[in-house]
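Exercise 3.2. Students should predict the tertiary structure of the chain below and write it as C-alpha cells, then compare their answer with the key that follows.

Predict this chain's 3D structure.
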Amino acid sequence: MLRKVLIGVGILLVLVIGGGFLLPDVVTVTRSTTIQAPPEAIYPMIATPRQWPVWSPWNDRDPNMAIAYSGPESGAGAKWEWKSASQGDGSMVMTRGTAPNDLGFELTIVGMGPPSRGAFALRPTGAGTQVEWTMTSEMAFGPIGGWFGLFFRPMLEKDFAQGLAKLKQKAEAAPSAPSAHVPAAPPGTP
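Answer key:
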C-alpha cells in the first residue's frame, strides 16, 4: 500500500513540475477604457507618482502605505517607493514619457523576481481618450512560476480594471479637465 502511495506522489510531483515547465513564464496583461477627457487631462494622473494614490487599487487596499517620492515630479525619472503590510514593499520608476500620449514604467516588488515593465498609451477618440494599460511580468520561480502565473494574471486583470475605472471616474470629475468633445461649427461656416 505504501508503495502505491509513493508511486502516486511521485507521479503527481512529475506532473506538477513538468506542467510548470510547460506553462508560460511571462505574463502580459492589457486592459483599456475610454475616458471622457482629453489626453492632456489624464496624462498627469498617470505620469505623476503623487497622483497614483488617488486612483490606484493598490493604495485603496492599504491606506496606511508608507510612500517616499524621488526624482522629478512627473515623467521619466519620477519614482515612488512604498512599504505595505498587505501590498508588499516595492518601487515604481517612470522610464519614458511622451506627454500626453505615452508613458513607460518599471515596477519592482521585493521578493517577486525581476522588475515588471509596463506602459500606458493614450489615444484620442471621438468619445474622449482610449487609455490602455499594459504590464509584462516574468515569473522567476522555475516551474512554480508557471503555476503562479495562472493565478497572477486574473489578479492583475482585476486590479487593472479597478484602477482604470477609478482613473476614469477621477478624470471625468476633474473640474480642470477640458471637454474632449469638438464644438459644433457656428452657422454659416464651411
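Discussion points: Confidence is low (pLDDT under 50) at residues 177-190. The radius of gyration is 21 Å.
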